[in-house]
Design a protein that fits this description.
Radius of gyration: 17 Å
Order of helices and strands: EHEHHEEHHEHEHHEH
Strand order of the largest sheet: 2-5-1-6-7
Bound molecules: 2'-deoxycytidine-5'-monophosphate
Structural class: alpha/beta
Helix content: 40-55%
Largest sheet: 5 strands, parallel
Number of strands: 7
Amino acid sequence: MMNVVAIDGPAASGKSSVATAVAEALNAVHINTGSMYRAVGYKTVLAGIDPEKDPETFAKVLASVQMRFVRQGQGDPELEVDGEFPGEKLRTEAASAAASKVATIPAVRTRLVELQREMAGNDLLVMEGRDIGTVVFPDAKYKFFLTASPEERAKRRLLQDGFELDPELLQKTAAAIAERDRVDSTRAVSPLKQADDATLVDSSDLSKEETVQRILMLIREKQNG
Ligand code: DC
């Protein structure tokens, strides 16, 4: 069994902040695999390379892009892409859209899954994404599927982005989130799906701290059992 805590779940489920806190409590390294899909989108789609119109150039860039996570003092390691730290550039709406486009391309997934598998070792790793428990590490020791209702996720996203919780905006955002869930869980390649042996954690009625504590308790139970 791999010494991995796999945390999967839909967009805006709070995965990243929960995974960061879980890794910190366990003194483990946290890898956010979404940033790798964002980096591929950044080097290709955002650089004007269309994977459909120019598959050759796309394949070349995909094969040559260098990625590694570098730990800079405390906190989560940061993704270095071809010698630069794109950081916030990967968090824009455009980078999100580019990431979700390249995430449907099988060759992209093959390359990134390979890189992700190379990161596992003796030390405990907390890896977060969409397909960690199903595809990357089907034999991870601990697997969680973190979710929350579309309404609750919409609320968290709006608050995080500094919006007021206007009912109409809330409803629109929840509908967009539900639609993205539908697309993600019905796509042909590595659809978002709970692994059979993953524990479902619904955080709709839990604070971030309560969610983290629940996951840590489940890990300890398994360690001791
Ligand atoms: O978690 P995120 O929003 O940073 O993910 C960015 C995109 O990458 C999103 O469209 C989902 C996709 N992704 C994926 O397909 N598989 C992963 N393991 C992680 C992210």
